[in-house]
Design brief:
single chain; alpha+beta; Beta-galactosidase, Chain A, domain 5; Glycosyltransferase; Maltose phosphorylase, domain 3; 3 domains; nine-stranded antiparallel β-sheet; five-stranded antiparallel β-sheet; 21 helices; 24% strand; globular; binds beta-D-glucopyranose
């Protein structure tokens, strides 16, 4: 049993005084010791390897197909398929990121060809060796973050007592993203004989990794073809049933001395395999190297995926050389992104960075893909793209701006579809979908299953129109950080103006209140989908939605006016923008209604009048109440009746905007948001939020770092361990939480440094927390690569690397300094006020 997988263990380890390394998880290595089948799903997700183009879960190559506890999954970024299933008496359509043929299988067993075999069984009946079928010892699984490899080591003993030591290395190539590879070394201990090794490509795969989706059709692949070439390459092709994407996987399996006999090939309808027999001598290692290529008709510069796969293998370097290139590619990424924080927190942050970069790497920049909420690590949320990029792009902007731009272009290519969706709903402008997949239509399910009650329920989360403002926010932040005018004035302006037009049209004038209102929406807190006993879905005037819409309107206007005249004229003509419409936006941006209740911002109109929940009672009754919505529904009640939120909603405003900007935004809307009022608002919602999303603790950590420092550690810790300890109880095995992972990196990078980019100036407003008061990171800003920020002992050092660039203007605590490339500026920070 691996105690490091235990959640209490994690929480205990991460103490505020943590400064050292911890057990096996140190520095660059993430290590699991011992084998526990029940822990496999979590390890598979956390040991996924990928390169931004495709990723493969850390499943066991030797496990039997479809075995319990194992879920091999390979997913290509942006590769979706749509299927219709019949559930709860109706047809429902879902688009899923497709689980592709499994390239991992590599099975092995000793043959019973020795004289002392007295069992009389046929060799063919011997079970394949695996930790599930053998006695297992010395089991160790290491994710080497620096090298981007997953290493396994184990000693297996079969029922005849034959001991086999296995060392395995795998990688998904970060340099040339068509490749993946698996190197396995076998060593017989105390015997000599024949080892049969089968290397296969398994095409009989479905999407069945998420238990609550299993009533839905998961068979996305069809028209399988398999075979092998004269030069010994295995191949498998198939296509997706609806989106008709053709997929090919090919493998070359080589035996490194001593040679054995074989290979023999077996091609079946949906899988293909080759078998070799190796003569093992006691204690002498034999290695089998499997090199794999994967191509689809989605790839850029592709003709036929199978040709591309075979060509890739025939021109592939030896596995060792592939590995060298792979390491070098990772080294380049670490140089652009590394973040040093001491202790276990630093180790977890590095793991988060690793998974962010495996999902969204520089290869992603040239693909037509968005930010999948659960990475390429599992099937939860079907690989869909939500608003989570608002937690991811701010981090990427400062390291890989080309990736941010690529992700924003995913949205721009779907602008037309968002305009159509708005028109279908009777509105003008762009209504971006809450869940987006291949073509930008709304992919949010219409029904969802409450696993607690077993009931299929209507799902109204598609009313989260605030996603449009988040996209504009990402355009703004990207533009402001990178100064990329061609994007800002090109696709960026088009998206901002179309989203502004949507809000301009969606807003209703309420003469009684002398204000504009946004009615019938759902806010980031997904719990509240309707008023108690209402006959229509949606709530009115979600404060977050209204304030961010006002901001999006004002930014769109600002951007419009700053456009070079010819471009402004072009857009005015293309979008038929009239001065009257622009005036209307300005008016709305000043007069959108913000609800208040007893001196704090009200989450939405009427929220403060809902019943209070008996939080203690529910905690006592159920322990974990993160999914309060499901608990209450199963009791025949509804979370709509209570002042209880799933996740940060109003407080998201404090995540998006620094305090002075937020106060200015409220002032524009006619409200005074002074620090006391904000603090009271923070208290109010911290007490009424169940934390049903990993994004919640992240936002709470961010906000409390500046308002309630004593509480900030609890939230930071929760955000840090949410995936490694699977805090949401079983959700991480279904895919990592990419927003929370990237968000924790950004918590250090921007949250604690107060880093804001305006024009050419880098602003810093540090608020280090006692337990995160020592860090070292570098950012790329306006042509300055690798600007280093180091905080230690209350001193902040900013180093601008040598270059031909002009000096970097830095504004910190009210002072402006210009740092010449090649120089360092050191600043003693004032003692922070303790919990004011
Ligand atoms: C959260 C959303 C988030 C989604 C995908 C949901 O549980 O409520 O805010 O976008 O997960 O991560």
């Amino acid at each position: 049993m691996n105690s490091l997988d235990d959640r209490d263990h994690w929480v205990g380890l991460l103490s505020p005084d943590d400064r050292g390394d911890h057990g096996p998880h140190t520095g660059w290595c993430w290590v699991y010791k011992g084998y526990d089948p029940a822990e496999e799903p979590l390890r598979e997700a956390l040991c996924t390897l990928g390169n931004g183009r495709f990723a493969t879960r850390g499943a066991l190559p030797e496990a039997a197909p479809h075995a319990e506890h194992h879920y091999p999954g390979t997913y290509a970024a942006g590769l979706y398929n749509r299927l219709t299933s019949y559930v709860a008496g109706r047809d429902v359509e879902n688009e899923d990121m497709v689980n592709l043929p499994d390239w991992l299988p590599l099975r092995f067993r000793p043959l019973s060809d020795d004289a002392d075999d007295t069992t009389g069984e046929e060799s063919g009946d011997w079970p394949w060796m695996s930790p599930d079928t053998c006695e297992v010892s010395d089991y160790r699984q290491t994710l080497d973050l620096r090298a981007g490899t997953l290493l396994r080591e184990m000693l297996l003993r079969d029922r005849r007592g034959r001991a086999l030591r296995v060392y395995q290395t795998r990688f998904v190539h970060m340099g040339d993203p068509q490749y993946a590879a698996l190197r396995t070394e076998f060593r017989a201990e105390g015997w000599s004989g024949t080892l049969e090794v089968e290397s296969a490509i398994e095409g009989d795969v479905t999407n069945s990794g998420v238990a609550r989706y299993r009533a839905l059709d998961g068979r996305h692949l069809t028209d399988h073809r398999t075979g092998h070439t004269d030069d010994g390459l295995l191949w498998l092709t198939c296509r997706t049933r609806h989106s008709d994407v053709h997929v090919a996987v090919a493998a070359r399996t080589a035996v490194i001395a001593p040679e054995g006999t074989g290979p023999e090939y077996r091609a079946r309808e949906r899988d293909v395999a080759q078998t070799v027999r190796l003569d093992l001598a006691d204690g002498v290692p034999v290695a089998v190297e499997k090199t794999v290529t994967l191509h689809t008709t989605h790839d850029p510069a592709i003709s036929d995926p199978l040709d591309a796969c075979l060509h890739g293998l025939r021109t592939a370097p030896e596995l060792d050389d592939l590995l060298v290139d792979h390491h070098a590619a990772w080294e380049r990424l670490w140089q652009r992104a590394e973040l040093h924080v001491p202790g276990l927190a630093g180790c977890i942050l590095r793991l988060h960075l690793f998974h962010v970069l495996q999902t969204l790497s520089p290869h992603t920049a040239s693909l037509d893909v968005g930010v999948p909420a659960r990475g390429l690590h599992g099937e939860a949320y079907r690989g869909h793209v939500f608003w989570d990029e608002v937690f991811v792009l701010p981090y990427l902007n400062l390291h890989f701006p080309e990736v941010s731009r690529g992700l924003l272009m995913y949205r721009h290519r779907r602008l037309g579809r968002a305009v159509e969706s708005a028109a279908e709903a009777g509105h003008r402008g762009a209504m971006y979908p809450w869940q987006s997949g291949s073509d930008g239509r709304e992919e949010t399910q219409t029904l969802h299953l409450n696993p607690r009650s077993g009931r299929w329920l209507p799902d109204h989360s598609r009313l989260q129109h605030h996603v449009g403002s988040a996209i504009v926010y990402n355009v703004w932040r990207y533009g402001r950080t990178t100064g990329d005018q061609s994007f800002l004035h090109g696709p960026g302006a088009e998206m901002a103006l179309q989203v502004a037009r949507f809000w301009g049209d969606f807003a209703e004038w309420d003469a009684d209140r002398s204000a504009y209102r946004l009615r019938g929406v759902v806010g980031p807190d997904e719990y509240h989908e309707a008023y108690p006993d209402a006959d229509r879905p949606g709530i009115d005037d979600n404060a977050y939605t209204n304030v961010t819409a006002a901001w999006a309107l004002s930014f769109a206007l600002e951007l419009y006016h700053e456009l070079p005249e010819p471009r402004r004229g072009e857009l005015a003509e293309k979008l038929a923008l009239s001065p009257g419409e622009l005036e209307g936006w300005k008016d709305i941006s000043h007069r959108l209604y913000v609800p208040w209740h007893r001196g704090v911002i009200d989450q939405f109109e009427g929220y403060g009048r809902l019943a209070e929940l008996d939080w203690e009672g529910y905690r006592e009754k159920y322990g974990d109440i993160a999914r309060l919505d499901r608990l209450l529904e199963a009791e025949g009640d509804s979370v709509n009746n209570y002042q209880a939120s799933k996740q940060a909603d109003v407080l998201m405003l404090g995540y998006l905007f620094p305090p002075d900007q937020l106060a200015a935004l409220f002032e524009r809307l006619g409200h005074r948001l002074d620090p006391d009022t904000w603090r009271r608002t923070v208290d109010h919602y911290l007490a009424r939020t169940s934390g049903g999303s990993t994004l919640s603790s992240l936002v709470h950590a961010w906000v409390t770092a500046r308002t309630h420092r004593a509480q900030a550690w609890r939230f930071s810790r929760e955000a840090l361990v949410s995936d490694v300890a699977d805090l949401q109880g079983g959700t991480t095995p279904e895919g990592i939480h990419l927003g929370a992972m990237a968000g924790t990196l950004d918590l250090v990078q921007r949250g604690l440094t107060g880093l804001e980019a305006t024009g050419q100036v880098l602003h810093l407003d540090p608020a280090p927390l006692p337990f995160l008061s020592h860090f070292d990171l570098s950012v790329t800003f306006r042509g300055h690569w690798g600007v280093r920020l180091s905080l230690e002992g209350g001193r902040l050092r900013v180093t601008v690397p040598d270059s031909a660039q002009r000096s970097l203007p830095l504004q910190i605590n009210g002072h402006r300094v210009h740092i010449t490339p090649g120089e360092t500026h050191t600043l003693q920070l004032p003692q922070p006020h303790e919990d004011v």
